[in-house]
Amino acid sequence: MNHITLALTALLLAPVALLPGAETKPNILFILSDDQGYEDTGFMGSKEIRTPNLDKLAHAGAILKSFYVQPVCSPTRAALMSGRYAVHTGVYGIVRPHAKWGLPLAERTLADALRAAGYETAICGKWHLGEFEPAYRPTRRGFDHQYGLWFGFIDYFTHKRAGEPDWHRDDQPCNEEGYSTHLIAKEACRIIREKQADKPLFLYVPFNAVHDPFQVPEKYKKPFTNLTGTRATYAGMVAAMDEAVGQIVAALKEKGILDNTLIIFSSDNGGPAPGKITSNVPLRSGKGSLYEGGIRACAAASWPGHIPAGKVIDEPLHIVDWYPTLVKLAGGSLEQKLPIDGRDIWPVLTQGARSPHEAILLCGTTPSDTAIRMGDWKLRHRTAGDELYNLAADIGEKINLADQQPAKVKELRDQLDKWLSKAVPPGQENIPAPSPDTGS
Hints:
By secondary structure, the protein is an alpha/beta fold.
């Protein structure tokens, strides 16, 4: 037997590496909660709210301690779907019902890219990126299946907002009875059970939970007798969502695809009314703010055998990063007309690499409301004067170091100005005012 034959024999007998992008493409489950507090899961330290299913996922993979999102709903979804910052999409604020705008049609969505890579694609939950014309709706933005609400702030039982029904299947009106969290979970499980055998699945589950109105069946509040008022109702809503996550994961296991499914969980922004309804401890402020309590999300990622279990990652990452990371894992193409702001974070999750970002743009609900994080430093640009914080020493942003560190202010401001010099105007007709940032 010659050396060539020996080499070929050894190659054939060698174990096959599981390389993403080949026939081992992972299924992808992306779960997004709405308005959940940074501390309001067990894996992020809550002693009041129990989330056993989310905790199990988080501890089976990596907890992301410095995962950034946008301060309100629609911009986070736009950043996830496009891999691009708000200064490039124009989605700075909330897309109101029937507003004549949405995620620009020029934007290639994550669903578009994954479908092109051979995935079956589905959204079960809240879209919130435009619907005034059919072209803006999920089934025209890369999703094979759609179920749930187009807007937000619906009644959990009647599925109405200001008396108008907002419940759809494949972007057509759908009248189904039940608590919305339960219905979204039920549909997600159906999608998994009926998954096409010859395609991997991208399942996007953006719950409207735990956004107000604060409503939940009474049984979910019973474990929280130590809490009172709206906080108790909110805790029950978190518990109902956690139960729903458990059902979806169980469906993956029953289908036999759990071990080849990357599961990602994140909130879309910090919790509102921190200290009263939600908890963003130890961060400052909450939803709508560019302080950490508005833009750091409780987040985790799990994929057995790929993301090491029990990891806690404190590298700064941003939701725009999932776009290139997932498309690359799927073996898809990142060649497109519009440049991508996100970076591939797979080495961070699996190999302990540093953040691929030299700096991260933190954009508020208007182009003039911005911040930047560079390493441990964060600059908040405000008309009243720039604020500078060292997050490693002062995660609660209590000590403004701008006057003491003028060179660092200039360094961060120069990078921020580069981004802002190319910022597109807002797409929305009515721009919400920035949060007053009381620090509560």
